[in-house]
Amino acid sequence: MRWTQAFIPTLKEDPADAEVVSHKLMVRAGMMRKIGAGIYTYLPLGWRTIRKVERIVREEMDRAGAQELLLPILSPSELWRESGRWNEYGKELMRVKDRHEREFALGPTHEEVITATVRGEVRSYRELPLCLYQIQTKFRDEVRPRFGVMRGREFTMKDAYSFHKDEKSLNDYYQVMHKAYSRIFTRCGLDFRAVLADPGIMGGKDTHEFMVLASSGESVVISCPDVECGYAATTDTAIGNPGAPSERIQPMEKLGEVHTPGQKTVEEVTAFLKVPPEKLIKTLVYHAGAKRVVVLIRGDRDVNEAKLQKALGAHEVLLADEATIKKITGAPLGFAGPVKLAASSGEVRIIADKLTIEGIRNGVTGANKADYHLTGVCEGRDFHVDEWHDLLLVREGDKCPNCHKTSLTAYRGIEVGQIFKLGKKYSDSMQATFSDEDGAAKPFVMGCYGIGVTRTVAAAIEQHNDEHGIIWPISIAPYHVEIVPMNVSDAGTMTVADDLYNTLWRNGIETIIDDRDERPGFKFKDADLIGIPLRVIVGPKGLAQGKVELKSRGAKETRLLGIEGAAEEIETMVKKTLDDLSVVR
Ligand code: ATP
Ligand code: MG
Question: For ligand 1, is residue 152 a contact (CB within 6 Å)?
Answer without folding.
Answer: yes
